[in-house]
Design goal:
It is built from 4 helices and 5 strands. The protein is an alpha+beta fold and 113 residues long.
Amino acid sequence: MYINKSLVGGIYGVSIGSVFFAESMFSAVKNASKIVLIFLLAKLNASKFKLFDVQFMTPHLASMGAIEISKNKFSQLLNLHVKEKNHFPFINSSKIEDWNILLNYLQETKEIS
């Protein structure tokens, strides 16, 4: 995430198939990593990604909707979804289309909760 051409927040990770493995988040401005995470989840959801691995549960991630699953369930989902053909979505927050994806995602999650 950029503000005035300065990088202020982001997430580093790897995607294989329809799985995204988050490795690290950073924030130079308060809440920037939260905004980036929600934007990324919206784009991955729109691109039909099935699993977002956060490595370990934290109160911060739980507050953002992360859930813990068993090792067995994770292995099942991983084996299934890494084999799917998918591409990591390009994210461009200067495009209205990406903001519409974000708004739709927020509406969907609001209706679920």
